[in-house]
Every structure is written in C-alpha cells, then in structure tokens.
Design a protein that fits this description.
Blueprint (H helix, E strand, L loop, with lengths): L2 H10 L5 H15 L4 H11 L3 H15 L2 H5 L3 H17 L3 H18 L6 H11 L4 H17 L1 H4 L3 H11 L6 H14 L8 H19 L3 H7 L1 H9 L8 H13 L5 H17 L1 H6 L3 H13 L17 H15 L2 H16 L4 H14 L4 H7 L1 H11 L5 H17 L8 H13 L1 H7 L1 H18 L7 H12 L5 H13 L3
Helix pairs in contact: 1-2, 1-3, 3-4, 3-6, 4-7, 6-7, 7-9, 8-9, 9-12, 11-12, 11-13, 12-15, 13-14, 13-16, 14-17, 15-17, 16-17, 16-19, 17-20, 19-20, 19-21, 19-22, 20-22, 21-22, 22-25, 24-25, 25-28, 26-28, 27-28, 28-30, 29-30
Length: 504
C-alpha cells in the first residue's frame, strides 16, 4: 500500500459526493484490516499537506490501537517508530486540532506502555515541555499531560508528588490560561490516586484553582464549567481534600450562582455542586452553618422571572437557574434536618407572598411545593394550616403564574402530606371545581396551568377515598362539560384521567 493511496482514500471521505464517500468508506474498511495501515497512518500524520486528512488519520490510528491486544500484536519496530513519529509530529504540527489528535493517540499508547515503564522518553519530553520558557511549548506539554492523566492515571501515581509540585507552578502561569486549564484537567483525572500522602498537597492547590475558575468564568464559561468538574470529582473520590476549604468553595459557588450577568450553564453548574454536597456531606453543611447562606442565595434566584411566562416552569429545564434553584431546595429538604430548612424558608415565603411582584409569590408557592416531600412530618406538625390557607388564596391569584404555582403546591401537598391534607377538602375542592369551570379561559392564557389544575385534582381525589363521594356529582358535571367542549384533545385526556382517579 502506498501512503498516497491511503491519503487519497481519506481525501475522498471529505468530498461532498455520496458515491465517492461510499467507495472510500469501503476501501478504508479493507485497508483497516491490513497491519501495514499503521505505518501508513503515521506517514499521513507526519507529512500530509491537508490538516483535515492529518486529523482524520489520528482518529483512525487511535481507534486501531485502542485495545491492548491490538497493541501487543504489533512488532517492537512498529511501536517504537510510531512513538518516535508522534513525539516529532507533536513539535512540528502547527494546527492545534491535529496536535490534540496526536496527543490523544499518545494517551492511548501511554495507557498501554507506562505501567511497564516502556516509554521513558514520553515522561522526559513532558518534563521538558512543561518547564519550557516558551508558553506554546508549556501549552503542548500540559495538554499531553492532561490527556495522559485521563488515559493512564494509575501509571502516573508514582510520580504524583512531583506532578503536584509542577501544578503549583503551572496554576500560576501568567502567560497562558490554557496551561492553567490543562493543569486543572490533569488534577481532576488524578484525584482517585491522590492517596493520604498527597492530600495536603492537593489541599494547597484548591484556592489557586478557585481563583483561576473565577477569572475564567468571565470570559470562557464552558471551560470554567469543565474545570469545576474537579470539585465534583473530589466530592465523589476524596472529600477530605475539600474539607479545609469547604466554606470557601460553597461561597464561591454561591457567588457564581447569584451572578445574573453570567450564562445559565455556569450558574447551574455552581448550584449542582451545592446539590451534590447536600446529598453526600449533609453533616458538613450543618456543622459549618452553611444552610442559611445557601437559602439566602437560592430563594432570590427562584424569584427571578423566567424567559417566558408561557413556558411550563415545572417541566424539567435542567439548564435554567430558576428551575435548578428549586431542585436544590428540594434536595436540601430531602437530606437536611427540617428544623434547619423550614423556619428560615418560611420567613422568606411570608415576605414573598406579601410582594406585589408575581414572580416572588410564585417562588413562595414553589418553595412550599418542593419541601413537602422531604419535610412532610415537620410541615404537618407545625405549618400545615398556614400553608393550606396560603395555597387557598394563591389558587385565586389574578396572575396565572402564581395560580399555576399554587396548584402545583396543592398537588404536592395531596401527594406527600396525607392524611392530614385531606381534612381540608371542603376548603380546597370548591376552588378547584371553580377553576375547572373556567378552563377555556385558562387554556387561552396559559395551557400549562391546566396541567397543574388536573395534577392537583387527581392527587387530591386519589387520596380522599370515601370523602370524595359528596363531590362526585359536581366533579363529573365539570368534567363532562370539558369533554363536550372544543378544548384540545390533550386536555380531554387529562379530564378522562381525572375520572379514573375518582375510582381509586
């Protein structure tokens, strides 16, 4: 096989002609089975003029050697020349995408070779590059090191002490944000192998990482989100590294979450750390008195308006700060002591319900709704009459976003606060029936409120049992009117489902 023929095949894969692409694909499948393709791919990577072809060749080569048995089948001469070619091409390559492709191939080889210390030249090159005076060489070195750490972290464990010393330097690289970013990526990959000997060293790096992410978030939110994966990994693998800085890390995440000048992704990423911390280390949150500071940030986020009042706020919008703030409060209610959560939240709820801003009132009802499951006993014993009265008023609010939130809260109460909530049927069901009578008007204003209406009705009816009997004639009358009206079929399906709930 001539290198030019392989180059031609790869070139044809990029031609905007389906027939040519199909022919090239067939030819590539054939040559892929030939062991001679390995040195030919190396030749394309090192010398082909088209950078897209060089990049494609790195992808194919990586795929060809991914499994160790494939690697072991190759002769020592081929593997040795491949490693030399990759190191040379890494320096020669000017295109960063191709360069990263080369680094990824090196990462696969490192996974196979480093455990047996069969590629000492790689470690020497990495040491030279990461300590270079030239910023672009340090970037290349840290890029490769981060990829090798991801692919062969265990093999780097014996070198972790010296690597952490290097990271102290590279995290302060004033010339290159990329060097700092790749450093955090490498740290993330190596967390599982930190061991007790390196905990303190990792701990010293945490404030530096936070400072870097803070600066990065202002200009490159996607990379900042990726860098924050380090803290998720620390929570899962070795939380002891975070413990001395836990308050600082939480404050940092709250700072990002509350900054509405930032994009949704990084604000949600910051809140997701709070949520994970709550699930995994709830005692630490209580012990370090972080509950109130967290709630004081989350509740105002929940009060912020969504992009459109016509959206269904209660459908999952995982990248919406408003939605996610409610989910974090829900998580806190499920995992933290109710007496730590409910009293401060009720003060916020009380103030919000008195606000002229409908989004504040909506936030109050959503808060009551999402705490019903986790704090059910505490609410039943201390707050239920007050909350029921609030929901009763909310279902008649002039603003549909508030009515929808109140109906959602009632549905959550009916689901999680039984049997106590059923005692209020005479107060709540007539309001629901009145809402059903105005369903055409509700549909025109906001169809999502109708879904909440039926959700509340179904959950209430399912748990009321014989207590529902006096209301059945009126309920069935309202539902039959809906079935005979010109509302869309989706609403009629909800009505039929509600009939089914009466037979539970």
């Amino acid at each position: 096989m001539a290198s030019s023929s392989l180059g031609d095949i790869l070139s044809n894969l990029l031609v905007p002609d389906n027939k040519i692409i199909q022919q090239a694909t067939s030819e590539l499948r054939q040559v892929f089975q030939n062991p001679a393709i390995i040195p030919e791919l190396c030749g394309v990577i090192s010398s082909h003029q088209n950078e897209q072809i060089r990049q494609y060749a790195t992808v194919i080569l990586r795929r060809k050697i991914t499994k160790k048995r494939q690697w072991l089948k190759m002769s020592a001469d081929v593997t040795c020349s491949m490693k030399q070619m990759l190191l040379q091409s890494l320096f020669q390559e000017q295109n960063k995408t191709v360069q990263k492709g080369i680094a990824q191939v090196m990462g696969v080889i490192a996974k196979h070779e480093l455990p047996q210390n069969n590629w000492p030249d790689l470690l020497k090159v990495l040491n030279d590059l990461t300590s270079s005076k030239a910023a672009h060489e340090r970037e290349i070195g840290m890029c490769v090191l981060s990829i090798v750490a991801s692919a062969a972290a265990k093999a780097l464990q014996p070198h972790l002490g010296s690597l952490l010393t290097l990271f102290e330097i590279t995290l302060h690289d004033s010339e290159s944000k990329l060097v700092q970013f790749y450093t955090v990526q490498a740290m993330t990959s190596l967390v599982d192998y930190a061991g007790s000997d390196n905990v303190k060293h990792y701990q010293r790096l945490v404030p530096q990482v936070l400072d870097f992410i803070r600066g990065l978030s202002a200009n490159d939110e996607d990379s900042a989100c990726e860098a924050m994966e380090l803290f998720d990994e620390l929570l899962q693998s070795d939380v002891s590294i975070l413990v001395p800085h836990l308050t600082y890390v939480v404050q940092f995440c709250l700072e990002l979450a509350s900054n509405n000048l930032l994009g949704d992704s990084i604000r949600v990423k910051a809140m997701s750390f709070i949520s994970s911390l709550t699930r995994l280390k709830r005692k630490a949150i209580v012990k370090q008195k972080l509950v109130l500071p967290i709630l004081e940030i989350l509740f105002p986020i929940l009060c912020s308006p969504t992009d459109s009042d016509e959206e269904d706020e209660f459908e999952e919008q995982s990248n919406n700060p408003n939605y996610y703030a409610a989910q974090v409060i829900d998580t806190m209610a499920l995992h933290l002591p109710p007496e730590r959560i409910i009293p401060p939240l009720m003060k916020m709820v009380e103030k919000a319900l008195q606000s002229d801003n409908p989004h504040n009132r909506k936030a109050a009802y959503i808060t009551m709704a999402v705490t019903a499951e986790g704090c059910g006993d505490h609410i039943r014993n201390n707050y239920l009459p007050v909350m029921v009265e609030c929901v009763y008023k909310g279902m008649s609010d002039q603003q549909h976003v508030v009515r929808g939130a109140a109906l959602f809260a009632l549905g959550q109460f009916a689901e999680h606060l039984q049997p106590s909530i059923s005692k209020y049927h005479s107060q709540l069901l007539p309001v629901l029936f009145e809402a059903l009578a105005r369903i055409n008007e509700a549909t025109k204003k906001n169809s999502s409120i109708v879904i909440k209406m039926f959700y509340a009705l179904e959950t209430f009816c399912e748990n009321l049992e014989k207590g529902l009997l006096p209301y059945l004639p009126m309920l069935l009358d309202r539902i039959l009117l809906i079935l005979n009206s010109n509302v869309d079929n989706g609403i009629k399906e909800l009505a039929v489902s509600a009939i089914g709930a009466t037979g539970q």
